[in-house]
Amino acid sequence: METVIIGTVGFLLYFIYDTNSICRNNRILQKFFAAGSICVCMSVVWELLDFFCGKGTRPLRCLVFGGGAGMFFALLVYTLFFALPFKETYVKENHTRLAYTNGVYALCRHPGMLWFAGLFLCLWAMTGDPFRGAYFLLMIFWDLLYIVYQDLIIFPRTFSNYKEYKESTPFLLPNKKSVKSCFCTQTEVR
Q1: What is the number of other CB atoms lying within 10 angstroms of the CB of residue 59?
Q2: Using H for helix, E for strand and C for coil, what is the string for 48-113?
Q3: 88-119, pLDDT tens digit by residue?
C-alpha cells in the first residue's frame, strides 16, 4: 500500500510541475519533477525489495523478465535524457520552443509511455503476483493520464509547433509511416 501512495504522490508532483511550467513558473515548484521522479523510483525499489525479500522468487522468471525490464528501462532513460537535445530541453528557458520530432519522437508523440509500460509489465511478470500487478497497472494508468494531460493542455502551450507535430505523428501507437520516419536520417527539427 505504501508503494501505491508514494508512486501516486510522484505523479501528482509531475502534474503540479507541468501546470507550474505554463502558469506561474514558481522556482520551488520547478523542483517537483525531480521530486516526483524520486517518489516513483522509490516506490518501484520498495516494491522490488519487498518481492526479493519474500519467499518463492523464481530465478529463471526473474532473469527473463528482469532482462526485459532492464531493456525497457534503458529505452526510457535514452528517450527522456539522451534522445532529446539536453540543454534546449531541460536547461534553457525558451518561450518559442519547438517540439523535438526526430528519432524516437518521430515514432510517436509519447514514446516514453511505451517503454514505461513495457518496464512495469515486465516487472509485474517478474513477480508473478496479482497484488503487485495492481500496483504496476496503477502506475501505467497514472503515466497514461499524465501524457494525455501533457498532450491536450501542456505541450500545445509549450511548443510552438505542437499542432503540426500532432498532425504528423501518432499519439501513442506507432504506424508504418512513423516507424519509417523514426529510422530515416533527419537533419532538421520540424
Answers
A1: 8
A2: HHHHHHCCCCCHHHHHHHHHHHHHHHHHHHHHHHHCCCHHHHHHCCCCCCCCCCCCHHHHCCCHHH
A3: 665 555 556 888 888 888 889 999 999 999 99
- Please give the model's pTM, rounded to 2 decimal places: 0.85
Residue pointed to by grid coordinates 512495469: 120
pLDDT digits (tens, 9 = 90+) for 25-41: 888 888 999 999 999 99
Q: What gap in Å lies between CA 124 and CA 65, rounded to an integer?
A: 9
171 neighbors 110 (Cβ within 8 angstroms)? yes
Please count the other Cβ atoms lying within 10 Å of the Cβ belonging to residue 58: 12
Query: Which of 102, 106, 109, 172 has the alpha carbon at shortest distance from 140?
Result: 172
Q: How far apart are CA 89 and CA 109, in angstroms?
A: 15
